[in-house]
Design goal:
The complex is a heterodimer.
Chain A (H helix, E strand, L loop, with lengths): L1 H20 L14 H11 L4 H7 L24 H11 L15 H17 L16 H10 L4 H14 L17 H15 L14 E5 L4 E6 L6 H9 L5 H7 L15 E3 L6
Helix pairs in contact in A: 4-6, 4-8, 6-7, 9-10
Chain B lengths: L1 H16 L16 E5 L2 E5 L35 E3 L1 H14 L2 E5 L3 H4 L8 E2 L12 H7 L3 E3 L2 E3 L5 E5 L7 H11 L7 E4 L2 H7 L8
Parallel strand pairs in B: 3-9, 4-5, 4-8, 8-9
Antiparallel strand pairs in B: 1-2, 6-7
Classes of the chains: A mainly alpha, B alpha/beta.
Chain lengths: ~280, ~210
């Protein structure tokens, strides 16, 4: 008898305790560490949260897929520089060219832009294929040119296949290689190949081609300026060869004309570009 | 008798196991969570189900030094509407899901990588400055079209821009740069409360 009274008493005690403590004290005591961010982070590292756990108290988080490679949003261009493209083609041809010392080695803006474009591409869905698969890699411009050169094709042939591929959007083209007519300036690419190959072989650099058509010399009291009017078929790379003898200098012209050029590939027929003297 | 006690404790334990798992912290009275699909990805926004949660760490601070962390205006530029959490969620559900809008996280990548609003795209304010030679590429990706050397934004995306909060000028700078680049103010909205307010409501974040 005594035992059952004691048992009932203990039960009543537990029941009271339960009723008193229950509201506001969920079984899983939560500490300050349970802040939304902290949990959010943990969840996506661990992957999808099972429904049971999610329904307890967790903010459900859909884990993001891995970042896709920077997409080529513009059909014609990407942010690669001529020097890289050239080096890749020469490497593809088996010519061992020492990497060009790039004056603009670190280009944080380029990297930043590439990751921005990748992010926008993922959201707008233009680059991400269904199911989150990474898009098939483009045939590279370098591969096309290497193959054509190995086959001994003519410059005109290379020009045609490169432009067809660029228009179909299957390759991307580096900065400064798009002409005012919107074509790919294959001649400049081929020139750049010769230039680098000569440099690698220890031969002197090619002289500037230096045609004077479209060039004006302006002077005022303080300075002497060269201005070049963009003609049909000009690319920034071609203009750089014309004045400096090197494709790599196209960035000098671009930087001097930032007020009229929104990108190195945005040159227009009739645009008047300042051609600065090279320092030193 | 022992068995009675054990049974009673058992009943108690069973009672204890059931309660308090139903959602009680909704977004609004009739919306517990928001689910939307962008491309191939599905996102869900809900709130932490802990009535006692408080802000922790970086976002619990109230008095960062100004400068550099100064209180930002409600209206950054004429025509740029300030919005709150419900408008951000509605924007994600309708415009972003339909592909006509982009939620822009204007913070630098190191902030973004610590957690962002679901489906936000990181477009750091620095990438939108006129000093970025590749700015035109970003504007094109946002839907701007170049006609005769002029950027036109008729087909461009509607944007909602946010940063860490009202004490953070990264969104202000991003919006100012966008307008300088020609983006119409009427197509930009500012979630001024930013991540601080978002977290203050215990709303979901994702790791990019």
């Amino acid at each position: 008898m005594i035992r059952s009274v004691v048992a009932l008493f203990v039960f009543a005690l537990l029941l009271c305790g339960y009723i008193v403590l229950r509201p506001g004290t969920p079984p899983r005591a939560l500490t300050g560490d349970d802040m939304a961010v902290t949990r959010g982070l943990g969840d996506s590292i661990l992957g999808p949260v099972p429904d049971v756990i999610a329904s307890l108290d967790t903010t459900v988080v859909t884990p993001a897929p891995l970042r896709a490679p920077a997409p080529s949003l513009n059909v014609l261009t990407d942010n690669a520089r001529m020097a890289e493209t050239t080096a890749n083609v020469l490497a593809g041809l088996g010519l061992n060219v020492a990497p060009t010392p790039d004056t603009t080695t670190a280009d944080p803006m380029r990297d930043l832009t590439a990751s921005v474009l990748s992010g926008i591409g993922q959201i707008t869905g233009k680059q991400v294929t269904a199911g989150g698969e990474t898009p098939a890699p483009n045939t590279s411009l370098e591969m096309l040119v290497v193959q054509a050169l190995q086959q001994g094709q003519s410059d005109a042939y290379i020009d045609t296949i490169v432009n067809e591929a660029a228009k179909a959007g299957t390759i991307t083209v580096p900065q400064g290689l798009v002409t005012a007519n919107g074509n790919v300036d294959t001649a400049v690419l081929l020139y750049s190949l010769i230039e680098k190959a000569r440099a690698a072989a220890g031969e002197p650099p090619l002289p500037p081609s230096g045609a004077n058509e479209g060039v004006e010399f302006l002077s005022d009291d303080t300075e002497f300026r060269r201005v070049y009017t963009v003609g049909s078929g000009d690319s920034l790379g071609a203009i750089a060869i014309k004045f400096y003898g090197s494709v790599d200098k196209s960035d000098v012209i671009y930087q001097a004309n930032r007020d009229v050029l929104s990108s190195p590939n945005a040159i227009q027929i009739g645009q008047r570009l300042a051609i600065p003297e090279l320092a030193g | 008798m022992m068995r009675v006690l054990v049974a009673m404790i058992g009943i108690l334990t069973a009672l204890q196991a059931q309660p308090s798992y139903a959602q009680t912290v909704n977004i609004t009275a009739d919306m517990a969570s928001s689910t939307f699909t962008v491309g191939a990805r599905t996102f869900e926004i809900s709130r932490t189900q802990d009535p006692d949660a408080t802000l922790q760490g970086e976002f619990a601070k109230t008095n960062r030094p100004c400068p550099d962390f100064c209180i930002q205006p409600m209206i950054i530029a004429s025509g740029v509407a300030p919005i709150g959490e419900l408008e951000v969620i509605a924007f994600l559900q309708t415009e972003v899901a339909a592909g006509t809008g982009i939620l822009i996280d204007a913070r630098l990548p190191d902030w973004y990588e610590k957690g962002a609003i679901p489906a936000a795209v990181n477009v750091p304010f620095a990438a939108l400055g006129a000093e970025n030679p590749y700015l035109a590429d970003i504007l094109h990706a946002l839907g701007a079209i170049e006609v005769n050397g002029e950027m036109t934004f008729d087909a461009a995306q509607d944007l909602v821009v946010y940063d860490n909060g009202a004490w953070d000028e990264q969104a202000t700078r991003a919006i100012t740069s966008l307008i300088t680049a020609g983006y119409p103010a009427s197509m930009i909205k500012n979630y001024r409360g930013g991540l601080q307010d978002w977290l203050h409501f215990g709303l979901s974040t994702v790791l990019p």
